Amino acid sequence: MDLQGKRLVVGMTGGIACYKVCELARRLQDEGAAVTAVMTAAAQQFVTAITMQALTGRPVYTDQWGAQGGAVGNAMPHIELSRQADAIVVAPATAHFIAKTALGLADDLLSTLVVARNCPLLVAPAMNVEMWNNAATQRNVERLRADGVQLLGPASGEQACGEVGAGRMLEPQELLEEIVAFFQPKVLRGRRVLITAGPTFEPIDPVRGITNLSSGKMGFALARAAYEAGAEVTLIAGPTSLASPRGVCRIDVRTAREMFDEVMARAARAQVFIAVAAVADWRVANASAAKIKKRKDAPPPALELVPNPDILASVAALPGAPYCVGFAAETDDVIANAQAKRAAKGVPLVIANRAQDAFGADDNELHLVDAHGVTTLARAGKLAQARRIVAEIARRIGP
Ligand code: C5P
Fold first, then answer.
1. φ/ψ of residue 199, rounded to 5
2. Which CA distances in Å does 312 have to 121, 132, 279, 335?
3. What does the pLDDT look like over 42-92, one tens digit per residue?
4. 183, 217, 242 — which closes off a domain?
5. Contact yes or no for 36/147 (Cβ under 8 A)
6. Is 311 close to ligand 1, i.e. is its CB under 6 Å away?
7. Ligand 1 mutation pick, 194, 306, 310, max ligand atoms within 8 A of CB
């Protein structure tokens, strides 16, 4: 429950994306938030107040005049609603709402409450691409950013990987991730974090290969947690079917050497490098370009293995290396092995766990091994662990 105890005002303005905010209201509550909906007249053309009341289980506010929908405190909802909220999320936010907010206009309940707020404001634009690209809209959006308003999306454009913008509202799941991220402490704000995750795949022939059971979940959780903490995150991922965490620049690779190349191209710019990938120790030197045929009386193919480069040790050896964090999955002597690995790779921090527990699991117990000793992070889900690791790294690298 990532929003346990949070009180959110969800402001809806007039756009078809209102139907997606019905779903968002549900998901916010699934994470523990209490949601109060405020709807403009235009929003009610798309979804009714009854719908939102049923979905949130609370009165819906549509009017600044009088005590409609159940009075809030002193019956001044434009003041009271934001006093009781941890944040106001306006979704969908029309070009018109953004323009009004940029100017500080207050001519209905939602805009008045936004001007009167003393809590953070998050805005999820939803509009046609031409409206989004319109010079006035862009000017207004800049104004909002300068005023400290957090923009959520719109879909596309803002990703470092380079899609181009269209003005479509983020999907409910994406908005949820952004809202959860908003409440996480920004302990890595502005830091560049490079992460490897997942297994690698070393081909034997075009259809076969050597790989391992790494799911990528821990590395992906760390990428998400680092993004939530305000970092600029690049995730170099081996073959996995996991969805990319929001806001993270993901580069897919297959082999250890591809992973090595992508990491080395970026390591000098990073302040933190977290090697979570289960990199294959060896690759097949005599991989076949054609599928190897199974023949009845022929012996099995003899695979000639050669070592892969050690990505973590290579980054740690760079002059001005980023703060390097390794992972160690061991079946036995977990701590002793992690200490040895820390020394062998020349890295300040190794995070150890039991291989039997770690691979593919959704939660695990972790041991942080550094020059000062061992810190154990009690068993928890991988995202919770990732957030703790991010906090531990931030504490170690300092401001
Ligand atoms: O050497 P070993 O595989 O036991 O070390 C594990 C740690 O080293 C992990 O952090 C892993 O991501 C990293 N590693 C690497 N490149 C390799 C092998 C391991 O970056 N070729």
1. -85, 175
2. 41, 43, 10, 19
3. 999 999 999 999 999 999 999 887 655 444 555 677 788 888 899 999 999
4. 183
5. no
6. yes
7. 310
Q: Where do the H-state alpha helices sit in 247-326?
A: 256-267, 311-316
| Final residue before a domain boundary, out of 183, 215, 232 | 183
Q: Using the CB atoms, write b or e for 371-390: b if 16+ within 10 Å.
A: eeeeeebeebebbbbbbbbb
Q: From the CB of 64, is ligand 1 less than 6 Å away?
A: no
The answer to whether the CB of 273 is under 6 A from ligand 1 is no
Q: Is 326 in the pocket of ligand 1 (CB under 6 A)?
A: yes
Mean pLDDT of 132-158: 91
Q: Which residue has the tokens 């795949």?
A: 201
Out of 119, 161, 249, 324, which one is annotated catalytic?
Answer: 161
Residue type, 108: D
Q: Do 344 and 274 sit in the same domain of this protein? A: yes
Q: Which residues pair with 323 in a beta bridge?
A: 272
219: domain CATH number? 3.40.50.10300
In a domain, 134, yes or no: yes
Q: Which atom of ligand 1 is nearest the CA belonging to 196?
A: 12
pLDDT, one tens digit per residue, over 163-173 is 456 789 999 99
Tell the burial category of 346 from Cβ atoms under 10 Å away from its Cβ (0-12, 13-18, 19+). middle
Residue 38 token pair:
């405020």
